[in-house]
Amino acid sequence: MSNVIKKRTEAKLPNTLSEKGKHKVEKYGWPYFKAGIIFTNGRGEFLLVREAKEQQLQENGEKEWVPTENGKWNLPCGRLRKWEDFDMAASREGSEESGYDFDMGCIRHIGFRFDIDNPYIIVIYHADHPYDISITNPPNPEEIAEVGWFDYQEILDLHAAGQLRNPELTLSAVHNERANVVIPEEAITVYTSKFSRGE
How many Å apart are CA 93 and CA 99, to the nearest integer? Predict the structure, then answer.
């Protein structure tokens, strides 16, 4: 482990966060930044994952993730952990949720979810994957119930049936993938600090 990564993993969270906020960041990652992968194969299909949990309103008025048999389909994506940047998080989430090994490509989508309860910026990266390669590391069944390949019309059908959890995100990323949209890496500038430089 490099000194920079070691410093990242040992970094303390800001004191401006409440104890509850710190706990959520430690457990789930930063709430306002997400990253993920859009997989394609030689058949013109896209990989989606069906979630094994859904958010349900609890008696205390807060939403919690609980197990479900009716999880919706989504791109492999998730929050940045406290020591990650966007491409590190996308690589980890893509591998954990799909079970596949892959090489990341260009940025396909940058989105902002405008939501008073759960706003976030998300970056989606392209990845090619041969259809006939089997899953190397099965995803955690408590998080991902199923992994599937879908063509464009099938994804539209999932949307019409209300089976996409983030339809605007998924459809935008799929449209960009189909149009071979390439977002320059320079679109995301990483600003360094004493911490990130390992000082």
Answer: 10
Single-letter code of the amino acid located at 195: F
Most distant CA atoms of the chain, gap in Å:
52
Whole-angstrom Cα Rg for the chain: 17
6 located within any domain: no
| Domain range enclosing 141 | 29-183
CB neighbours of residue 1 within 10 Å: 8
Residue 3 has pLDDT above 50, yes or no: no
Query: Do residues 72 and 164 make contact, with C-beta atoms less than 8 angstroms apart?
Result: yes
CA angle 38, 33, 100 (to 5 degrees): 30
In a domain, 166, yes or no: yes
Residue with tokens 């609980």: 66
pLDDT for 74 equals 97
CA distance 172 to 108: 9
Cβ-based neighbours of 148, under 8 Å, separated by 6 or more = 47, 48, 49, 50, 73
- Assess contact for 125 and 103: CB atoms under 8 A: no
pTM here is 0.81
